[in-house]
Amino acid sequence: MPQTHPTAAPTAPTTASPTELSLEERLTLIDAAMTVRLDEAKIAYEVNTAHIPTEPVDLADIITGPLDTGPAPLPELYPTPVAALLQRAHHRLLTGGWCSGVLVDEEGAHCMLGAIRAEAGGDRRLEADAAAVLLEAIRREFGDGVDSVPSFNDAHGTAWIPIRMVDQAAHLADARGL
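Structure (tokenized):
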């Protein structure tokens, strides 16, 4: 007997029933329902808090501008002279500004070596010790190709790396007890 294979009945194209809504239509209905609920909650809040006495608020008491507090205070200094000098130089660069190409520019900003010299107060030995520790900190991070503190300072277009290196040199000097 020959074997026959059942054939699938042709299927009609599926169409959405009139009760099915598209995603956009459902979202529109949900948005409308939420708006009604929020309006009801707003009215309920106003009714429930109507008996609470309030005084008008003067915005001048609330909104204030920034206060001019001056430069940031110098943090507690390291106990050793070279570390304290480098910490003061770091603070000077943060508050007074950084420059390159000169020790001090016309606006009063200092380069790395200029900040050390200004904070050393004329003590050339202390200044030389601080510059040596700073150069060592720079070479630790950037290699032995760095010739001097001024050349490193002038090689940067922004203050972030030079200022960070003065801070790292202060930590290094403190760790060595200098």
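The chain has a mean pLDDT of 84. The helical segments are 23-49, 59-62, 81-96, 112-120, 124-142, 149-154, 160-176.
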